[in-house]
Amino acid sequence: MTDVFVSYKAEDRRRVKPLVDALEADGFSVWWDAQIGGGASWRQAIEAELNAAQCVIVVWSKRSAGPEGEFVQDEATRAQQRHVYVPVIIDKVHLPLGFGETQALSLVGWRGSNEDRQFQAVLAAVRNKVGSQGTGQSLSTRDRQFLSRRTVLAGSGAALALAAAGTWFLMRPTAAQSESIAVLPFENLSGDPSQAYFSDGIAEELRSALARIPGLKVVARTSSEAVRSADAQTAASKLHVHDILTGSVRKSPQMLRISAQLIDGKDGTERWSEVYDRPVGDALQIQSDIARKVTDALAIRLAPSSAARLKVAGTADAAAYDLFLKGVAVRQSGHTDDNLRSAVRLFDAAIGRDSKYADAYGLKAITLAELTAGFANSGPEMQQGYAEAGQAARRAIALSPDSAYAHAALGAVLAGQLQCKAADAEFRKAVAHNGADAVILDDYGHFLAPLGLTQQALDLGQRAVAIDPLNARSYTVAAAALFDARRYADATQATAKVLKLNPTSQAALMQLGDSYMLLGRYDAARATYAKVTANDVFRLTSEGILDERLGNHSASAAAAARIQQLYGAAASYQLAEIQAQRGDKDASFAALQQGLALPDPGMIAIRTDPFLDPLRSDPRFQAILKRIDFPA
């Protein structure tokens, strides 16, 4: 039986092929062909495959959605009848009559990357239909928020036992609790794919509002989106929650219709529902009302302070809120320089309308920190980026002292500047709030792991897994913490879990290869590194270290030269690692001094990095350690 049947217009074959290749690379069997029509036997073959496939992806384009797309539309109807229909758009089109009620997943502008958020959303929908467990976010560029190769697994893992036995048992999510809920993506029924940001944003704002309620477990966005096509009972089972909140949004220039339903995940019965027909500017009041109605239906008695936390968005300006949601959508559409800069501009536009919009300042700060860590090309550019991010974070905290995102953003900024003790204090404030989501828990865990604070990192990972169980990123703190604790055999098992959910993660592949190398499994390490993009700085570094361990001194020298040529000062920490392994202590210390001067955020890994072991007995190493303000 074929996993996936791809329905498309023959003229779009070139554009559809990257989707087929990406699905096959993820392990799915895919049926498709270049010709549509051409005889009875061909039609019978199509019908047989269409009826047998566990999932049917219908690729909507200008051709397939138009008058000449009748064959594709017939296949889409059959897929709907079998409940295996997954619509994907590659052009900005209005879907034919009868297909607009199911939200289409956008691959408009997608360039074929397996790690792109657009493809990950499609992958999650396919896995849901085929029966595999959910998927996770890409871990590629964002993993470099802390530039050290030891900390690139930005994300979160479950708390593992210190003994290897029973490791994976402890990573299983706990059973559903009575006060637990998942807010599934609200369907965009506007007939305009460009409005998806609004319906997705409403669902996310509701998650944020409900997450502030003490004692209520709210599943994070990525895991919720992984089951967007599932029925309520299936979604509740996969997410280990008792209740499901779902709904839809239909938006016109003047009017807004939002429907919401609270469903008991155990038996599928409706606990509460309501339809709101209001002017577009009333979106904020509608969301606040939904949040309050949900808490009433769940019989959660709120203290006055908790009730105040239900406030949605933090602004009364509907236009500012709309700009904020657009910024969130752009930021999440792909971790690129252009996307992050566009998101900052949208957050600035929202702030321009409401100068006291704390959430906009907070997300601006986080985005600037990511932009600086991932894309700054020089020391001055990095310093300027962190200064701007810090200013935005402090403004957010001044406006909303309890904002988890604002404190986490400031923590990331301070960590990037190697002010680790101050960063730790901000991260602690962030995770102390009920509004701390899985991303914040992940980031703090990855900050603590290279400092050698293993158990604290694992505890944070366990919290992240509880609220984001279908996200590969939620399992990476455990992998990083075990590696930094030098428990490489356990680290390989933990990293394998990440790769099971996200097989193309470059960061996870690098950590797995490093674990193999430090276990003396050199052939396995080489084969794993080969799966990483050529000329990736981390791959070049690890392969150079491996060559040195195998006695190929000239090859390791060539790797160091290549890193210097391609990355210069931005790779000072990686150059320090490879030169330390080559026995050139003077060159290694020179690179570390350069890392301090930038500063390179990766320097926080210096405490636990095994590739710097040849330097540890040198007085110069202790002098460098003293220049970084590590927490106790």
What's the structural blueprint in terms of helices and strands?
Elements: E1 4-7, H1 13-25, E2 30-31, H2 40-52, E3 55-60, H3 70-82, E4 85-89, E5 105-106, H4 117-130, E6 180-183, E7 187-188, H5 196-211, E8 217-218, H6 221-226, H7 232-239, E9 243-251, E10 255-264, E11 270-279, H8 283-297, H9 304-308, H10 318-332, H11 337-353, H12 358-375, H13 379-399, H14 404-416, H15 420-432, H16 438-448, H17 454-467, H18 476-484, H19 488-501, H20 506-518, H21 522-529, H22 537-549, H23 553-567, H24 572-582, H25 585-597, H26 619-626
Parallel strand pairs: 1-2, 1-3, 3-4, 4-5, 6-8, 6-9, 7-9
Antiparallel strand pairs: 9-10, 10-11
Helix pairs in contact: 5-8, 5-10, 10-11, 11-12, 12-13, 12-14, 13-14, 14-15, 14-16, 15-16, 16-17, 16-18, 17-18, 18-19, 19-20, 20-21, 20-22, 21-22, 22-23, 22-24, 23-24, 24-25
Q: Could you name the CATH class of the domain at 4-132?
A: Alpha Beta
Give the amount of beta strand, in percent: 5-15%
CATH 2nd-level architecture of the domain at 4-132: 3-Layer(aba) Sandwich
SS element count, helices: 26
Low-confidence stretches: 34-40, 133-178
CATH topology of the domain at 4-132: Rossmann fold
Structural class: alpha/beta
- What is the share of helical residues? 40-55%
> CATH homologous superfamily of the domain at 4-132, by name?
Toll/interleukin-1 receptor homology (TIR) domain
Mean pLDDT metric = 83
Global shape: globular
Largest sheet: 6 strands, mixed
Distance between the termini: 57 Å
Give the C-alpha Rg.
25 Å
Find the count of extended strands (DSSP E, 2+ residues): 11
